Structures are given as structure tokens and as C-alpha cells.
Amino acid sequence: MKLKHNIHASGQSGFKVPTGYFETLEDSILEKVKRKSYPETSGFKVPDNYFEEFNLETPKPEKSVNVIQLNTWTRWIAAASIIVFIIAGAMYIDYISPGKNLEFSDLEDDIIEKYLDLHLETPDEFIDYDNTSLKNIIETNIITLKNQDIMDYLNDKLEDQDYED
């Protein structure tokens, strides 16, 4: 539905300005200002000889006043209570924190067995090297190795190595 008085559709705004209005606007405003009479005084008046007789008086120092000091023990109590509050808060946070330090001895045997079943590929990974006879066998065999055997082994491994990465 179109409106009959739509400003945008008709291209007219409905307002009219007299011809030559903007050309004579500045002159007409200046004329009105000149015609208007302003009072020469603002309504405020300074008394006669005010600045000549003006005397600045500085306040006289007061007699000594008794100063009452606050007790120093109240400050110490306030400081001690703040410190106690901080320590208690830190202990409480440490108590409720989920990241408590667990030790291996804190774990149950069932949990350890499940972990080892899931994470160890072969039982040989869990051998205690220091407490087995395997340690003695390896140490005696290393002593009997010759330098040439070690060099041959390393050369074989180097030739098998793929360096194309």
C-alpha cells in the first residue's frame, strides 16, 4: 500500500522558504543584534576602595593540641590476623587440591597390574636389570669383545641405515 503523502515518492518535502531568505539572513540577524540594547552594568558591584583597603590576614598558629596515638598492639593484631588468614587459606587450598603428590607405594596392586598389562608390549621390558643374572652375562661378554668385532657390527648397521629421509 502506497501512502499519498510519502515525501520521498513525490520529491517535495512540504516545507517552503521565502525567496532570498538565505541571502539576507546574516544581515537581518546583525540588525536585530544592533537594535537590541544591552545594559552596561552586569548587576555586580565592587565596594568603593575595596582593593586599596583589602588586608589579607593569615591565620594565627593554634595552641598545641594533644595528639592521641592509636595503640600499636591493634596494628600488630591486624597484621597477625592477616598472616594467619593467608596461611590457613594456603593450607586449605593444598588440602582440597586434586593434584596431590602420589607415591608409588600409595597405589594399589590391582592398578599397577592393569597399567603394566596395558602399556608393556613384552614382559622383557619390566626386567630388573640390576637384580638378574643377565647383568653378569652381558658384562662378561662385553669384556671379551674385540675391537674388530665392534667395528664390523657398526659398519653393518650403517650400511643397513636408510638415509633418504
Kindly describe this structure.
The protein is mainly α and 165 residues long. The protein has a domain at 104-159. Helices cover 52% and strands 0% of the residues. It has helices at residues 7-10, 21-35, 50-53, 72-96, 109-119, 133-144, 147-160.
Give keywords.
mainly alpha
List the SSEs and their pairings.
Layout: H1 7-10, H2 21-35, H3 50-53, H4 72-96, H5 109-119, H6 133-144, H7 147-160
Task: Sum this structure up briefly.
The chain is mostly helical. Helices cover 52% and strands 0% of the residues.
Major sheet description: none
Count of DSSP strands = 0
* Helix content percent band: 40-55%
Low-confidence stretches: none
Radius of gyration: 51 Å
SS-based class: mainly alpha
Mean of residue pLDDT? 76
Please identify the oligomeric state: single chain
Task: Compute the number of helices.
Answer: 7
Which shape, going by the Cα principal axes? elongated
Strand content: under 5%
Query: Could you spell the SSE succession in H and E letters?
Result: HHHHHHH
Distance from N terminus to C terminus (CA atoms, Å) equals: 76 Å
